[in-house]
UniProtKB/TrEMBL annotation:
GO biological process: one example: glycyl-tRNA aminoacylation
Keyword vocabulary terms for this entry: Aminoacyl-tRNA synthetase, ATP-binding, Ligase, Nucleotide-binding, Protein biosynthesis
Protein name (database record): glycine--tRNA ligase
Pfam family, one: tRNA-synt_2b
Gene Ontology MF terms in the entry: ATP binding; glycine-tRNA ligase activity
The keyword ATP-binding is assigned to this record: yes
UniProt xrefs under PROSITE patterns: AA_TRNA_LIGASE_II
Mitochondrion listed as a keyword: no
Length: 435
């Protein structure tokens, strides 16, 4: 684990995980581009999430809703209400926003109690505005979605009518969200364009608190086990029970899962009980009918939500390690951008290169298809190992002169740095078992 965000930013830039956005034009503040390795890491996080929560569960189905929705969605959800388009100041410490007319500048922040922390007042709605069609008129205003959640609410009946879902069930979505944050920063922690993985989990109107608490607890456990699955040490996670008054207006209970980022304990994920607030606002009639009792009702919602970018950042901070000169990302193999690397011992020996290519192809195209695999034929082997360690590649395979004689290769393990010699025909199964 690292306590230096600079080391992570530098590694990400140097090795092609994350670049400053629009860099050749002087950049664009707080925008970031995921490079060749970053996109693999991010996709691996999303794949793991989808597989775990959609494919491996019978009670959750997927959705991919439009980014630009009818502005009425944002009226119903409360995002366009007066509070959102007032003059706002933001506390630079806790990022809570307040109506400028309700705050005295020289007083401490009512949320976190810090002094001298307010930004200048601004006319502010967090949503990015745009226009549909050529005329830039009020009637054509539309917004980029500030959260993925509303897609699941708005499509609730469509999903219900087309899938064999009965309450309790969930709708899951991964996608971009946009917020015109007043104080973005801390690398990819807070940006104006980011990606979310969200589930809206619908339950029958609870008869008592136990009814929803048990589902809430199930999701709390699921979120903890997800954090372990991506390699986060739960000792670095802090659950914050958000007190009444600080919760979003629709929430009856919220837990923030905070991670020990190098810049402090900060929200990684959230879990909220949104009651029937959203469906009631979108549907004037109860949208769900219980097949057994015949009762119609507005289901209640438990919402676990994950930031993709914050997941990637936490994983990078957690797995970064140094061993003398050697820098290592101890990524779970499922998240590693490359599953293995293959090296011909010497680049100027055509026999070695041809043999290494043959092994490369057999792994990539073989029945267990191990992808992607890095190819490196530059510099000495020690440097190549270090180079792969730094990007988290779990295994390095070297093809040397002995390979030409007896078809064995060396396989070196990133975490132990131990090497073993394996017959070529056992290589694929060895990798599959250990990945
Ligand atoms: P914060 O308090 O940090 O502003 P939030 O409580 O507003 O976050 P939610 O609306 O609950 O965040 O969004 C769900 C998740 O989306 C967060 O837990 C976080 O992982 C991610 N997220 C929210 N805002 C951003 C952002 N500006 N940049 C990157 N990720 C974000």
């Amino acid at each position: 684990m690292t306590d230096s965000i600079e080391k992570i930013v530098s590694l990400c830039k140097r090795r092609g995980f994350i670049f400053p956005g629009s860099e050749i034009y002087g950049g664009l503040a707080n925008s970031w581009d995921y490079g060749p390795l970053g996109v693999e890491l991010k996709n691996n996080i999303k794949k793991l999430w989808w597989s775990r929560f959609v494919h491996q569960r019978q009670d959750i189905v997927g959705l991919d809703a439009a980014l630009i929705m009818n502005p009425k969605v944002w009226e119903a959800s409360g995002h366009l209400s007066a509070g959102f388009s007032d003059q706002l100041v933001e506390c630079k410490n806790c990022h809570e926003r307040f109506r400028a007319d309700q705050i005295e500048n020289d007083k401490a922040c009512p949320n976190c109690d810090k002094k001298d922390v307010f930004t200048e007042p601004k006319q502010f709605n967090l949503m990015f505005k745009t226009f549909i069609g050529p005329a830039e008129e009020k009637a054509n205003i539309a917004y980029l979605r500030p959260e993925t959640a509303q897609g699941m609410f708005v499509d609730f009946k469509n999903v219900l009518d087309t899938s064999r879902t009965t309450v309790p069930f969930g709708i899951a979505q991964i996608g971009k969200a946009f917020r015109n944050e007043i104080t973005p920063g801390n690398f990819i922690f807070r940006t104006r364009e980011f990606e979310q993985m969200e589930i809206e989990y619908f339950i029958a109107p609870p008869k008592d608190d136990n009814d929803w608490q048990s589902v809430f607890d199930m999701w709390r456990e699921e979120m903890r086990s997800w954090m372990e699955a991506i390699g986060l040490d739960l000792a670095h996670i802090h659950e914050l029970e958000v007190p009444e008054g600080e919760r979003a207006h629709y929430s009856k209970r919220t837990i923030d899962f905070e991670y020990d980022f190098p810049f402090g304990h900060k929200e990684l994920y959230g879990l909220a009980y949104r009651t029937d607030f959203d469906l009631k606002n979108h549907f004037s009639q109860p949208p769900y009918r219980d097949g057994q009792t015949g009762d119609s009702y507005w289901p209640h919602v438990i919402e676990p939500t994950w930031g993709v970018d914050r997941s990637a950042l936490a994983v990078l901070c957690e797995t970064y390690a140094e061993d003398g000169e050697r820098k290592i990302l101890k990524l779970k193999p499922s998240l590693a951008p490359y599953k293995a690397a293959i090296f011909p011992l010497l680049a100027n020996k055509p026999d070695l290169v041809a043999k290494a290519r043959e092994i490369y192809k057999s792994l990539v195209n073989g029945s267990s298809s191990i992808v992607p695999i890095a190819w490196d034929d530059r510099g000495n082997i020690g440097k190549r190992y270090y180079s792969q360690d730094e990007i988290g590649t779990p295994f390095c395979i070297t093809v040397d002169f002995q390979t030409l004689e007896d078809n064995t290769v060396t396989v070196r393990n990133r975490d132990t740095t131990k090497q073993i010699r394996l017959p070529g025909e056992k290589l694929a199964s060895h990798l599959t078992e250990n990945l």
